[in-house]
Amino acid sequence: MTILLTLYAGFTHAFETDHILAVSNMVTIRNKTFKAIKDGMYWGFGHTSTILLIGIIFLLLKFKIAPATFKYFEAAVGVMLVVLGIYRIYQWYTKEEPVLHTHPNGHAHSHTHIHTVTKTTKEHSCWPAYLIGLIHGLAGSGALILIVLGNSQTITNGLIYLLLFGLGSVGGMMIAAGAFSLPFSKKIISNNMLQTVLIFASALLCIGYGAMVIKENLM
Predict the structure, then answer these.
(1) From residue 104, how far is each of 100, 101, 107, 109, 218 by CA, in Å?
(2) Which tens digit of pLDDT belongs to each residue from 160-181?
(3) Domain residues of the chain, as ranges?
(4) 3-state SS of the chain: helix, strand, coil percent to 5?
(5) Neighbouring residues of 192: CB distance < 8 A, sequence distance ≥ 6
(6) Contact, 176 vs 20, CB < 8 A?
(7) Count of CB atoms within 10 A of residue 61's CB?
(8) Separation between Cα atoms, residue 20 and residue 16, nearest integer Å
C-alpha cells in the first residue's frame, strides 16, 4: 500500500503548474505523440536524478542546507520557465519562412501572394527535456526531503521512497506530455494559425508564471 501511495504522490506531482507549463512548451515542437511521450519520460528521469542526488547528499552525507536556500532553487526554476517561453517563441520565429507564390488564373493573368512555410529542421533531441527535468527537481525537493527524513526509519527506506516517487513522476509526465502534444499533432489540427496561437499562449503563460515564481522567491 505504501508503495502505491508513493507512486501516486509522484504521479500527481508531475501535474503541478510549473511542470505542466514546461512540458506544454516542450511538446509544441513535436508533431507525433510518441515523441512527446518520450520527452515526458526524459523529463521524469531528469527530475528523478536531481531528487535522488539531493536525497543522497542529505541522507548519506548528512549534509544540511538552510531552508531559505531552497528559495533560490525555486527562483532558478522560475528563470528556466521564462527562458523556455522566450526560446519557444524564438524557435517559432526562426522556423517560419515567407514564400512568394505566383498562380495563373486561366485568363493569361496571374496573382501573387505571400505565405509562410515551415523550414526543414533536424530531428529534435530529448536531452533538453532531461535537463529541464534536472532543474525542475530543485523545486520542492526541500519539502520532499524533510518528509523523507521525518518518516523513514533507515537511509535505505528513504532512498527507496525517493526512487518510487521519481518513477511515479515519470509516469505522470509521460501522460501529461502525450495529452498536451495532441493539439500540435498535424493529424489532429492542420490549421497553422491555430497552432501558432496555441504556441504563443503556452509560451506567454510560461513566461508569466516563471516571472511570478521569481518575484515570490527573491522579492
Answers:
(1) 14, 10, 8, 6, 61
(2) 888 999 999 999 999 999 888 8
(3) 2-102+110-218
(4) 70, 10, 20
(5) 116
(6) yes
(7) 8
(8) 6
